[in-house]
């Protein structure tokens, strides 16, 4: 009997580059029963927990962001050299048949190893502005799946691009796949409009420090709103204290596991504009205020926020524009007070949603590789 195919999906560095992999992995498992799927990340505990909780294998590929100063350079070189060795070992010892890159730290070493070893690979580009390494890797990719069709103009001529749309986490596909933006009240909902603040898994320092003061400055405009704030690891106590100090009654949590369920009864969100976040707010039809991470040097957040502003009207707040709390309050006030304005943005977001994106990615990869999914025996078969 032929060996079941082994597909490795590489991301890591943030859950935003892991969540789409869970949705894509599910599509391959449905198309090829018995196929083995491994997700590779940079080894963070939250990544391992999330992937294994979905019933998938997880492998650690050492990697590091590009250094921002000379002191970080040795660590960058050592970790990425180790990642190169681990990636080659995985391809050989785990008999990987296909690599799918989601971006993120672990994707770079895996794609470079796949190119050197002759293992076919596909690229899923969730952001509007591709990494330079991604642009170079498209030359030998079997297919490049784009979240936004405008991204094709930023890639080399002749790159095998397919517009599949942005991929969200499985929970958003399940809750909103058949009805983008179909939000419903949750059990125990008190009927008040809800504002969600996502400080990220690792903690968005600026949001955790500035949102309590911003809510205070909003005064009566935010008085009837329930505030739910995800702080990320290590920020819970400090953020709770800031809300208490300004007299704001907010629900502060470290991490929200079931964000899709919360989105069903939420009315506005403040968050980072990652590619995965754009996918999920469009699926949920959830108006957003985007705050790009000023610590990033690649411009991805700014490009995503600019794209969302042009397409949907979602406003952007620059972290470096003086008093961030004042900027957040000024941006939030018209959205809190004007339900019609929120509805207009929500409708534009729903039009941008691609509920079938993960299925389109799986189909595009199989088509590009010339393979068919067969149930018995489970394997990749060359298409006629």
SSE arrangement:
Elements: E1 6-10, H1 19-31, E2 36-41, H2 45-53, E3 57-60, H3 73-93, E4 98-101, H4 107-117, E5 121-125, H5 132-137, E6 143-146, E7 161-163, H6 170-176, E8 194-198, H7 205-218, E9 226-230, H8 236-245, E10 251-253, H9 259-263, E11 268-271, H10 275-284, E12 288-290, H11 300-312, H12 324-337, H13 339-352, H14 357-369, E13 371-374, E14 379-382
Short description:
The chain has two domains: 6-165 and 354-382, Rossmann fold (3-Layer(aba) Sandwich), CATH 3.40.50.2000; 175-352, 3-Layer(aba) Sandwich (Rossmann fold), CATH 3.40.50.2000. The protein has 14 helices and 14 strands.
Strand order of the largest sheet: 3-2-1-4-5-6-7
Q: In total, how many beta strands?
A: 14
Ends apart, CA distance between termini: 20 Å
CATH fold descriptor of the largest domain: Rossmann fold
Shape: globular
Number of domains: 2
Largest sheet: 7 strands, parallel
Number of helices, where a helix is a run of at least 4 consecutive DSSP H or I residues: 14
| H and E string | EHEHEHEHEHEEHEHEHEHEHEHHHHEE
* Corresponding CATH architecture of the largest domain: 3-Layer(aba) Sandwich
Strand fraction:
15-25%
**CATH superfamily heading of the largest domain:** Glycogen Phosphorylase B
Domain Glycosyl transferase family 28 C-terminal: 195-341
GO biological process, one term: carbohydrate derivative biosynthetic process
Domain Glycosyltransferase family 28 N-terminal: 7-135
Keywords: Glycosyltransferase, Transferase
């Amino acid at each position: 009997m032929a060996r079941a195919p082994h597909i490795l999906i590489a991301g890591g560095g943030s859950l935003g580059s892991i969540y789409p992999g869970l949705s894509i992995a599910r599509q391959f498992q449905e198309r090829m029963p018995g196929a083995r799927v491994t997700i590779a990340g940079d080894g963070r505990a939250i990544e391992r927990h999330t992937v294994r909780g979905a019933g998938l294998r997880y492998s650690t590929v050492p990697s590091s962001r590009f250094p921002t100063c000379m002191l970080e350079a040795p660590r960058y070189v050592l970790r990425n050299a180790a990642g190169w060795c681990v990636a080659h070992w995985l391809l050989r010892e785990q008999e990987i048949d296909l690599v799918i890159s989601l971006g993120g730290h672990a994707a770079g070493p895996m794609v470079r190893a796949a190119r050197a070893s002759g293992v076919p690979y596909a690229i899923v580009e969730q952001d509007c502005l591709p990494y330079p390494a991604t642009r170079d890797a498209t030359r030998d990719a079997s297919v490049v799946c784009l979240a936004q069709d405008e991204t094709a103009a930023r890639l080399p001529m002749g790159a095998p691009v397919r517009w599949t749309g942005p991929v969200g986490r499985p929970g958003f596909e399940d809750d909103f796949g058949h009805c983008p933006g179909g939000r419903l009240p949750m059990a125990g909902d008190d009927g008040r409009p809800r504002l969600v603040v996502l400080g990220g898994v690792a903690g968005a320092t600026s949001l955790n420090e500035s949102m309590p003061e911003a809510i205070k400055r909003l005064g009566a405009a935010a008085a009837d709103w329930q505030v739910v704030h995800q702080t990320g690891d290590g920020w819970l106590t400090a953020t709770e204290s800031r809300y208490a100090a300004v007299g704001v009654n907010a629900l502060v949590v470290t991490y929200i596991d079931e964000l899709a369920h919360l989105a069903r009864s939420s009315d506005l969100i403040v968050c980072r504009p990652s590619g995965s976040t754009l996918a999920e707010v469009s699926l949920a039809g959830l108006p957003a205020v985007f705050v790009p991470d000023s610590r990033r040097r690649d411009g991805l957040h700014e490009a995503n926020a600019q794209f969302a502003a042009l397409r949907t009207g979602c406003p952007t707040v620059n972290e470096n524009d003086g008093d961030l709390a004042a900027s957040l309050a000024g941006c939030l006030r018209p959205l809190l007070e004007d339900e019609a304005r929120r509805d207009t943005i929500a409708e534009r977001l729903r039009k941008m949603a691609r509920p079938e994106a993960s299925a389109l990615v799986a189909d595009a990869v199989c088509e590009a590789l010339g393979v068919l999914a067969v149930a018995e025996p489970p394997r990749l078969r060359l298409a006629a």
